[in-house]
Amino acid sequence: MLACLSMSHENPPERAQIPEVGSCEEKNRLRDEFLKTIRELNALLSQQTRAVIEGDPDFSRFDVLLHVAHERKEMAKYAWITHVESHHCEEG
Ligand SMILES: [Zn+2]
Predict the structure, then answer these.
(1) Whole-prediction pTM value?
(2) pLDDT tens, position by position, for the chain (92 residues)?
(3) Which of 17, 46, 48, 82 could form a disulfide with 62 if both were Cys (CB 3.0 to 4.6 A apart)?
(4) Type and span of the H or E element at 44
(5) What's the 4 CA to ligand 1 centre distance in angstroms?
C-alpha cells in the first residue's frame, strides 16, 4: 500500500511545547559558552601571574586581553541569563 511510504512519522514533534526541566539544549549550550569564557579569563590571569612572577617587564600586555576576555564573559553570562529568564528553564 502507498500509505506505508508517507505515514511513517510516529514520533511526537520535538518543539510542540516548552522542554521539560533539564532538557533545554540551548541553555546548556549557553552555559558551556559562559564556562568557556571563564576558562579563557582564568588562563589569561594565570599567564599574567606567571609573567609577573618571572619578572616579565611586559606583563601589562595582558591587560587588554583580560579586558576583552572579561567583556566576552559578561556577554556570555547575559545571553545565558536572558535565555533562562525568557524560557523559564533555570532548573536542571
Ligand atoms: Zn531554555
Answers:
(1) 0.70
(2) 554 554 445 555 555 555 455 579 999 999 999 999 999 999 999 999 999 999 999 999 999 999 999 999 999 999 999 999 999 988 65
(3) 48
(4) helix 25-53
(5) 36
Q: Are 79 and 33 in contact (CB under 8 A)?
A: yes
What is the whole-number distance in angstroms between the Cα of residue 20 and the centre of ligand 1? 9
- Give Cα separations from 72 to 18, 46, 59 (angstroms): 28, 18, 21
> Alpha carbon of 49 to those of 45, 60, 65: distances in Å?
6, 10, 14
Which of left, alpha, beta for 88 (phi over 0: left; psi -120 to 50: alpha)? left
